[in-house]
């Protein structure tokens, strides 16, 4: 089965894990520190904070920025549920914003402006599928409205401009992301004071960690704030250090495969649209396509599955998920809903070759021909 995404794991990762086990020190040690430094350098940042997941990263960022009950945070609905969940964790209200269009399925600035109220405190941008939001436009919007700007950068690790949009960015190293530590995440934040708050609240709000107490004379610690246990461990950091070295080459393979997809889909499936332009800055996390309005998506999915090709959907809109619909049944985001009905995500990962892409596009073309036997193309 050709999967939508697949981690690249091999001998280097095995050796790195074995070295941690031999060292006898399994959590919050030198490897976590080294991983943080290396991750920060790749994003031209001074420092990074490794955590247990991107969800934890988002929670810590909102918590440290003091967002809470009574506050509203603008979020896209075309995202993974964790983006909105993190807002609910701190007691604030996620306000869902429609996308610009199916061609540019990123949060719409005009819609964001229309949904601002006196309670709006922050915006969480999502670089959907790896395609970067317009930094200048969002920075000037945030300045004009007095809003905090946060990136959910789960889809876009490894691009130097990511992490420079606003107060902080959250990254994911889950198994299906561009690089993985199995589970894991990181925060990049510009302000040193904010970083210190996040670092301390990652580990119970304690003023020093086990490792620091080992290397200093003091056995004492204090807890000066409410914290969480959102630590990363040495095994994950060791995996992360290996994966980080490979990330730039993997992102380049993804870019090349995406370019092949664009050419072949335009040639063989002209009724299918691919969001964004060829040169849009991207980490190419996903290969989303938009099927013609009349196509039966389930039949296309089944057709590809019969040919051992997995496809997925990004995303079922968060505002339509039962939990969020129960919270606020009246949200209507027509462009997000239309996109979510027609979107299909094709396999894209660095273990694929150009001939895998050809096979997918051939199968897609055959599936659409079966949908429109008379050659009618919507
Ligand atoms: C994967 C993902 C997350 C959550 O990442 P975890 O590391 O699994 O917590 C958050 N936001 C987006 C957009 C994601 O794709």
Structure overview:
With 378 residues, the chain is of the alpha/beta class. It folds into two domains: 11-241, Type I PLP-dependent aspartate aminotransferase-like (Major domain) (Aspartate Aminotransferase, domain 2); 247-371, Alpha-Beta Complex (Aspartate Aminotransferase, domain 1), CATH 3.90.1150. Helix content is 42%, strand content 11%. It is built from 13 helices and nine strands. The protein has helices spanning 11-23, 30-42, 54-64, 81-89, 109-114, 135-145, 192-202, 210-214, 234-268, 297-306, 322-327, 334-342, 354-371; strands at 49-51, 72-76, 93-97, 120-126, 148-152, 168-172, 185-189, 287-290, 343-346. The strands form two sheets. It has a seven-stranded mixed sheet with strand order 1-7-6-5-4-2-3, sandwiched between helices. Strands 8-9 form a two-stranded antiparallel ribbon. It starts with 10 loop residues before the first helix and ends in a 7-residue tail after the last helix. The structure holds pyridoxal-5'-phosphate. Residues 53-55, 79-80, 82-83, 126, 152, 154-155, 172, 174, 185 line the site of pyridoxal-5'-phosphate.
């Amino acid at each position: 089965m050709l999967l939508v995404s697949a981690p690249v794991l091999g001998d280097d990762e095995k050796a790195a894990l074995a070295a941690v086990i031999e060292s006898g020190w399994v959590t919050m040690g030198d490897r976590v520190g080294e991983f943080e430094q290396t991750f920060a350098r790749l994003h031209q940042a001074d420092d990074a904070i490794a955590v247990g997941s991107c969800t934890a990263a988002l929670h810590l960022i909102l918590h440290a920025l003091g967002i809470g009950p009574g506050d509203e945070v603008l979020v896209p609905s075309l995202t993974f549920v964790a983006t909105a969940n993190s807002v609910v964790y701190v007691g604030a209200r996620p306000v869902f914003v429609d996308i610009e269009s199916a061609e540019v399925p990123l949060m719409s600035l005009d819609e964001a402006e229309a949904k601002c109220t006196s309670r709006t405190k922050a915006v969480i941008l999502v670089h959907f599928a790896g395609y970067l939001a317009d930094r200048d436009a969002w920075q000037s919007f945030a300045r004009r409205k007095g809003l905090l700007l946060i990136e959910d950068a789960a889809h876009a690790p490894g691009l130097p401009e990511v992490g420079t949009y606003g107060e902080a960015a959250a990254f994911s190293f889950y198994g299906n992301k561009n690089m993985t530590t199995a589970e894991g995440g990181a925060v990049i934040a510009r302000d040193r004071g904010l970083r210190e708050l996040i670092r301390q609240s990652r580990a119970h709000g304690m003023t020093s960690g086990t490792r620091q107490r080992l290397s200093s004379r003091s056995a004492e610690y204090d807890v000066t704030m409410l914290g969480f246990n959102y630590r990363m461990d040495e095994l994950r950091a060791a995996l992360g250090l290996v994966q980080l070295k490979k990330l730039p080459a993997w992102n380049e393979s993804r870019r090349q495969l995406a370019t092949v997809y664009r050419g072949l889909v335009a040639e063989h499936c002209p009724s299918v649209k691919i969001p964004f332009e060829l040169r849009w800055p991207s980490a190419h996390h996903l290969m989303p396509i938009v099927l013609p309005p009349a196509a039966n998506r389930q039949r296309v999915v089944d057709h590809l599955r019969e040919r051992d090709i997995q496809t997925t959907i990004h995303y079922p809109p968060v505002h339509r998920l039962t939990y969020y619909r129960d919270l606020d049944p009246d949200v209507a985001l027509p462009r997000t809903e239309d996109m979510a009905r027609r979107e299909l995500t094709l396999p894209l990962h660095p273990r694929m070759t150009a001939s895998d892409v050809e096979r997918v596009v051939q199968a897609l073309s055959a599936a659409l021909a079966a949908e429109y036997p008379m050659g009618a193309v919507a």
